[in-house]
Design goal:
single chain, mainly beta, seven-stranded mixed beta sheet, four-stranded antiparallel beta sheet, globular
């Protein structure tokens, strides 16, 4: 059974931090990579960060580099997104996703399975 469940979203002031978690079913977590995307109102869903199965390779959007860190705990089937120095423009619904093999991890088209999303709101 494919399952991705995000948590950790909420309301935070600019400059604050949040840590998102995504717990996946074992089958889903064995995907070659896991990613985080976000979608703000009226905008398309955009790539935030991705991490390979081993954790040895990570990828981040330029807009979050130096502020957000993706990590994973394979023993817990969980991927995390640590978000620091949050800005109002980070406000969005954040989605966890599982990638298929041999794909572009920076493109939403490369992901087969998605969670339901968690809302992150950053106030100014």
């Amino acid at each position: 059974q494919v399952q991705l469940v995000e948590s950790g979203g909420g309301l935070v002031q600019a400059g604050g931090s949040l840590r998102l978690s995504c717990v996946a079913s074992a089958r889903t977590f064995s995907s070659p990579a896991m990613g985080w995307f976000r979608q703000a109102p009226g905008k398309e869903r955009e790539f935030v960060a991705a991490i390979s199965w081993s954790g040895g390779s990570t990828y981040s959007a330029d807009s979050v580099k130096g502020r957000f860190t993706i990590s994973r705990d394979n023993a817990k089937n969980t991927v995390y997104l640590q978000m620091n120095s949050l800005k109002p423009e980070d406000t969005a619904v954040y989605y966890c996703a599982a990638a298929r093999a041999d794909t572009n991890y920076l493109n939403r088209a490369g992901y087969d399975y998605w969670g339901q999303g968690t809302q992150v709101t950053v106030s100014s």
